[in-house]
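Internal ticket #5521
Category: modeling
Description: The requester needs a full-assembly model to guide mutagenesis choices. All entity lines are attached below as received. Residue total reported by intake: 647.
Assigned to: D.W.
Attached entities:
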Amino acid sequence: MDFKLSEREELLRKSTREFAESEITPRIEAMEETGEFPLDLLKPMAKLGITGIIAPPEYGGVGLGYLARTIVLEELGRVCAAMPMSMQVHHMAIAALNDFGTEEQKKKYIPPLAAGETMGCVAVTEPSGGSDVLGMQATAVLKDDKWIINGRKCFITNSHTSNFWVVIARTGEGPKGLSAFLVEKDAPGAKQGRKEHKFGLRGSNTGELVLDNCEVPKENILGQEGGGLGVALKTVSESGRTGMAATALGILQSIYEEAGKFASERVLYGKPIAALQAISFYMAEIYTELDICRLLCYRASWMKDQNLRFDAESAMAKSYTCDAAARCAKKAIEIHGAYGIMKEYKVQRLLRDAMVTISAGGTGEIGKVVLGRAALAPFQKK
Amino acid sequence: MDRVIVCVKPVPDPKDWDRLRLDPVTKTLVREGIGSVINPLDKHALEAALEIKDAQGAEVVILSMAPPAAQPVLREALALGADRAVLLSDPAFAGSDTLATSRILAAAIRRLGPFDLICCGNYTLDGSTAQVPSQLAELLRIPNIMHVSKMELKEEKELIVTQKIEQGYMRLEAEPPLLLSFTKEANKPRFSSFLEILAAEKRELAIWTNGDLNLKESLIGLTGSPTQMADLLVRQKGRQGLRLEGDPEEIARLLVDKIHQMGLI
């Protein structure tokens, strides 16, 4: 067993950290105020390789694996979690295309996504909920040589910044009655609905997609007809959960740094508060949580890179890390005292951002459903 | 241009400087747990070289004299886009001052063969003597322009160089072979793209010892260094408490006497 990162992974981390600190930091205030994703950063991120990190080189990507992606997302999240949130969903669209697309679809859609010419999104959730995938109401009907899609998708990350949407809709009854479609933003009947105003991950765009008799060419079905559940589950479980976990891991790293710095600089009773045992215990807890989460996140991504089944591990990394980020953000705010709730201090943003990660990409509870099943599997009677 | 050489020095990471200590006995920096980075100004020198590579396809060679542990720093320079790197590493080089260092670098450059341009940072963050670029140019008998705040490519072998001088700026036309040392105004260093990080794994990182350079031991290392450090002290900051008593006139007189005594006036 080897816990040491390679020179390559260390360089990826260093380069992403330098990029994030220098190019993203100056944009955070505007993101917080406007709630807009800084689209002009897409090109520089593409130049670095962030947008196309997991896309195969033959489609213009870098062709790196999920552990590399996790490290990169973590470093972006350390500076501003809205960026990895948007990027990980962008990667989900690439992963869905790469896993289920035809050669023509891959050639057409992956290169512009990898090159940062546009963003991608995956639209599963509806107003009735996202956890209950089978309760989905959007429909797609084949009429002549076109699919006619009707429905509303909500809480979709990158909804208003993407040119291509991976949309799941009902084409029949039951679990085999869902199919995935590639919908272009300008398709007849495709509309962007309301833009949400979230209290966290402000710079990551979230909103509604409306499909009103939306016409999509017959060949824009992604995967097999009836295979939509597989597209949704594989994409959410693999790239979605690892991406969400990496985003929260970046938040957690930042929580650790902010809390450590403040505790070492703030003087009370004639010495830094870090010297108080109560504060050092808080730091010990944050430090431990950070390590647990990092190991969980890296293991899940590593398993993906090794082609191992890792649905339980990705659910564990996602649900534990997102929860831990929120728990630790609360502790960091307490270490800061009244300063912690002031907008000038970063920790309040870290709590808001961490809270958003909990329900995104499969709620913590859905993660636990997966984990409960895995935990009890050895004890089930056949 | 065909070949641009960039001299790079690994220095303690500025982010760790508040944790740097001086060993009271050996008078050397305690570098345990302190990361090494490319000297920040050397990144501007490298960026200038990479711009020439982008425009004219020149080969960019990294040259560094450092212990073998500096290899990751050179790998980073390769990941920024340099074509190959040479690390000059030998126990015989240890303790070299700026002149001995320049001799070693000059010997390595001669061994590398023909070049058009040598790019250096204007000074390093740790030593800050800013002596190596000029000494190196002198040893190689080529012109040196220091304090470069802008470099423009005019023709294939012609440069317009803006040099920062005391009263402003001076624009110079220059032709290779030439040594330029860069300030941070010169350009904005790029980030290592992930593709370059992957490509750098296949780029050559050679280690040359004095066996490759054949320099006399009297010219290198501690013995070859005319600068000998007598002592190194950590500046102590503090206040000497002194309480003057008496009536105001008396206190004033005591204070004036004290100031005279300390030679402050």
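Resolution: model delivered.
Comment from assignee: Chain A has a mean pLDDT of 95.
Ticket closed.
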